[in-house]
Amino acid sequence: MPVLVASDLDRTLIYSSAALALTMPDARAPRLLCVEVHESRPLSYMTETAARLLTDLGDAAVFVPTTTRTRKQYQRVNLPGPQPAFAICANGGHLLVDGVTDRDWHARVLARLADECAPLAEVQEHLARTADPVWLRKQRVAEDLFAYLVVERELLPPDWVKELAAWAESRGWTVSVQGRKLYAVPEPLTKSAAVHEVARRTGADLTLAAGDSLLDADLLLAADRGWRPGHGELADTGWLAPRISALPERGVLAGERVLREFLNATRTAAP
């Protein structure tokens, strides 16, 4: 039976320049591989060692990139190793099979959102009305599924975020702050639901997962084993759960450690 490895991407496996956390002396910094270019500029990286580990993992397990990114944002990421047969985008809203959206899955997601939470338009209107131009830089909608703001993080009032989270929860939505982005996402829109579907289709009897943010908590809880880096929302709040390992590494070296853990667990599970 195959092992399924579902991993968040940003700040779990791949890192922007600002998130690398290269705290060691320059001469000891790891060699980096650029895995994403946007508007002709390098955007995301992993270590060369992590790239080798991911290539080995792709040969040993069913590796499923599992991201809140839109399909367009995901498709500009050029990960090393075999092309994944499955990928999960838009926090579970789109299941890609050989790079193409599974329309039946997407229709099921839309039906559930319509039944269980307030409409996107209501959330958009609330964000537009309450966000302060002093710290708001952009307001965006992703795949007509959820909304996010690009903010000046140091100016973002914590009380406003708490009030937004309470308002959203009463309407079946959740709020997550990741770097300069604040996400408002319907509670039924989860990575774990899409991962369960991939496990069903592949017959996987062991699921491994990793992630750093509040939006990854359901993914980690649904896995047989999971890991979180030493940075991110989950680490900042001290989030822990059974079968979840909190890693000490921060930044790009955490991505390397996550891949080592994935590969070791996959090989241990092999008959």
Automatic annotation (TrEMBL):
<dbReference type="InterPro" id="IPR023214">
    <property type="entry name" value="HAD_sf"/>
</dbReference>
<dbReference type="InterPro" id="IPR036412">
    <property type="entry name" value="HAD-like_sf"/>
</dbReference>
<protein>
    <submittedName>
        <fullName>HAD family hydrolase</fullName>
    </submittedName>
</protein>
<dbReference type="InterPro" id="IPR024197">
    <property type="entry name" value="TPP-like"/>
</dbReference>
<dbReference type="GO" id="GO:0016787">
    <property type="term" value="F:hydrolase activity"/>
</dbReference>
<keyword id="KW-0378">Hydrolase</keyword>
